[in-house]
Amino acid sequence: MSTHTDPIPEIELRDGVSIPQLGFGVFLVPAAETESAVAAALATGYRHIDTASGYRNEAEVGSAVRASGLDRGDVFITTKCFNDAHGYDEAKRAAHLSLERLDLGMIDLYLIHWPVPAQDRYVDTWRAFIDLQAEGLVRSIGVSNFQPAHLQRIIAETGVTPAVNQIELHPRMAQGELRRLHRELGIATTAWSPLARGALLDDPAIAAIAQRHGRTPAQTVLRWHLQIGNVVIPKSITPERIRENIEIFDFELGADDIAAIDGLERGERIGPDPDTFVRP
Ligand code: NDP
User: Fold this and answer.
1) How confident is the model at residue 7 (pLDDT cuts 50, 70, 90)?
2) Is 20 in the pocket of ligand 1 (CB under 6 A)?
3) Is ligand 1 within 6 A of the CB of residue 50?
4) Distances (CA, A) of 64 to 8, 53, 172
5) Nearest CA to ligand 1 atom 24
6) pLDDT tens per residue across span 184-208
7) Ligand 1, atom nearest to 235 Cα
């Protein structure tokens, strides 16, 4: 597989760590297929992999990175602490287990996967994250699926602002309120399910914009993400799509295209509601 050559832009996080704006997500990639999918992504030019302990494929991600022959410092690895490991000691234990499974040295970005307000332990979990970063086990720390109240609470109670909030974000759920708050607080936004799992790729407005630019609907949606400032982590196990999804750095949507895609907002989640989600 030939390597993509346009440089992938990086976003500097509030703690000075740089994250590639395009990553490769591996949620729902079965462990047996993860090594080959990640190998294909790395061979194509991706340098950022998004996994989680809950995806049960961290070990395979680690094997693929080690087998790639790339310098460890050239690949950015995100993983996440799951809902059953909230609490100070539990989160520290979970981080050590992820470090062992990945076997890649430091984790580049460690996220609290969900706030699970019903457990009310995310502040203690965040305190563990702060210490994990201070101990040098993880380079950068952040959260996922945090609503404004959860962000404000961890910041008020610990004084430490997360570097990233990874949230469901696509044209039908564009998260304007959270993105504004992230900007105010200096938090980077990562978009999960950036393609709405394919659900919006046959939308006529997107198809029309894609056709004007000679691109596919998926490339058009991913380009929208880049231009509104998101980090974006599409998932695919299909080699042609893995390549398609990285070929997004050599064209530019106009302001009218961005506005038309913004107009698809419906406040429509495809994933769980973070205020009530407890377990998968
Ligand atoms: P995506 O929006 O990335 O969609 C993935 C789906 O779209 C797959 O079915 C894939 O098919 C298909 N697809 C990918 N590229 C194309 C293309 N170019 N054309 C047509 N179809 C395409 O959804 P995900 O939910 O997987 O989200 C991406 C990543 O976000 C996850 O892998 C995970 O890393 C992260 N995530 C984080 C969550 C969190 O709570 N923090 C929750 C959910 C996801 P195929 O694979 O068959 O090619």
Assistant:
1) confident
2) no
3) yes
4) 20, 16, 33
5) 193
6) 999 999 999 999 999 999 999 999 9
7) 3
Q: Is 45 in the pocket of ligand 1 (CB under 6 A)?
A: no
* Residue 1 pLDDT > 60: no
Query: Would you state the structure tokens that stand for residue 235, as one six-digit string?
Result: 């998932």
The three-state secondary structure class of 152 is helix
Residues in the chain: 280
Q: Is the alpha carbon torsion for 201, 226, 41, 19 positive or negative? A: negative
Residue 280 pLDDT > 60: no
CA 104 to CA 118: how far, in whole Å? 33
Q: Which among 192, 237, 273 is the best mutation to test ligand 1's pocket, defined by most ligand atoms within 8 Å of the CB?
A: 192
Looking from the CA of residue 195, the nearest atom of ligand 1 is 2
Out of 55, 88, 110, 122, the active site residue is 55
Residue at 3: amino acid letter: T
pTM value is 0.98
- Per the annotation, the verdict on 88 as an active-site residue is no
Contacts of 74 (CB under 8 A, 6+ apart): 47
Q: Which residue owns the Cα nearest ligand 1 atom 29?
A: 25
Predicted confidence at residue 69, as pLDDT, reads 96
Contact status, residue 61 vs residue 36, Cβ threshold 8 Å = no
Please report the pLDDT score of residue 6 as a whole number: 78
In the chain the domains, ranked by start, together with CATH numbers, are 10-197+235-250 (3.20.20.100)
167's enclosing H/E stretch is strand 164-168
